[in-house]
Amino acid sequence: EDQVTQSPEALRLQEGESSSLNCSYTVSGLRGLFWYRQDPGKGPEFLFTLYSAGEEKEKERLKATLTKKESFLHITAPKPEDSATYLCAVRDSGTYKYIFGTGTRLKVLA
Amino acid sequence: DAGVIQSPRHEVTEMGQEVTLRCKPISGHNSLFWYRQTMMRGLELLIYFNNNVPIDDSGMPEDRFSAKMPNASFSTLKIQPSEPRDSAVYFCASSLRQGDNSNQPQHFGDGTRLSIL
C-alpha cells in the first residue's frame, strides 16, 4: 500500500537557522513526488514536483531533493514568513491519486 | 486570474441534515479533485473528475457522500445524512488534465470548514 510519512511533525527554528524536513515514501512505482505549503485557513499551495532520484528543485530559500525512498525539503536561512505546514505527496504509477503525508508544521521565530 | 473558489467557507449544521459544498475550478482546467483534511488522517482524496466524468471515487467513505460535476465550471459534494464524524475541512482542487506521464500541479481552494453537531 502506498504510504507517505513526514518528520518531524513540528519544528521550531530561529530566523536564519537552516534545517531539513523529511518525507519518506513507499510506492510500487513513483510517478511524481510533490511538495506543498499550507498556511492556516488556506488551501495547499504547490511548490515543487520531483520525478526521479537525484533530482533537485530550488525556489528562494527552499530546495527539494529526492532519493529512491525519501525526499528532503531544505530550508536555508529561514524567515518568519516561511512559517507554514509543509506537505509532501506522491503519485504512484497507474493511478491519478495523490497520497499526502500529514505534514510538518514549521514555526520560524524572529 | 481567479483561483479555485469554494463555498461556503464555513458550515455548521446538525446531525442528519443535508450538506452541499460547492466548487468552481479554474477556467480551462480539465481535472477536479475533492479532498477531506483532518488532523489525524491529513489530506485524503475523495473523488477525481476528468472532463466532468468521475474517474476514481474509491475514496468516498460511504453512500452518504455523493459528488457531481454537471459542467466544466461547477462541482458539488453532498453529504446526506450528515454525521459528527464528517466534521473536517473539505478542499476542492483543479488542474490541467493529468496524463499517464505528466503531473499537472493541483491548485487548491481555501476549503470549507464543516462542523456537524
Number of strands of chain B: 11
Number of strands of chain A: 11
**Per the principal axes of the C-alpha atoms, what is the gross shape of chain A?**
globular
Count helical runs of chain B: 0
Distance between the termini of chain A: 41 Å
Q: List the quaternary state of the chains.
A: heterodimer
Describe this structure in words.
The complex is a heterodimer of chains A (110) and B (117). With 110 residues, chain A is mainly beta. Chain A has strands at 3-7, 10-14, 19-26, 30-38, 45-50, 56-59, 62-66, 70-75, 84-92, 98-100, 104-109. In chain A, the strands form two sheets. In chain A, strands 2, 4, 5, 9, 10 and 11 form a six-stranded mixed beta sheet that branches. A five-stranded antiparallel beta sheet of chain A has the order 1-3-8-7-6, with no helix packed on it. Chain B is mostly beta strands and 117 residues long. Chain B is 0% helix and 53% strand. In chain B, strands 2, 4, 5, 6, 9, 10 and 11 form a seven-stranded mixed beta sheet that branches. A four-stranded antiparallel beta sheet of chain B has the order 1-3-8-7, with no helix packed on it. Chain B is globular. Classes of the chains: A mainly beta (110), B mainly beta (117).
Question: How would the blueprint of this fold be written?
Answer:
The complex is a heterodimer of chains A (110) and B (117).
Chain A (H helix, E strand, L loop, with lengths): L2 E5 L2 E5 L4 E8 L3 E9 L6 E6 L5 E4 L2 E5 L3 E6 L8 E9 L5 E3 L3 E6 L1
Parallel strand pairs in A: 2-11
Antiparallel strand pairs in A: 1-3, 3-8, 4-5, 4-9, 6-7, 7-8, 9-10, 9-11
Chain B lengths: L4 E3 L2 E4 L5 E6 L6 E8 L3 E9 L2 E4 L8 E7 L2 E6 L8 E8 L11 E2 L3 E5 L1
Parallel strand pairs in B: 2-11
Antiparallel strand pairs in B: 1-3, 3-8, 4-5, 4-9, 5-6, 7-8, 9-10, 9-11
Provide tags for this entry.
heterodimer, A: 110 residues, mainly beta, six-stranded mixed sheet, five-stranded antiparallel sheet, 0% helix, B: 117 residues, seven-stranded mixed sheet, four-stranded antiparallel sheet, 11 strands, globular
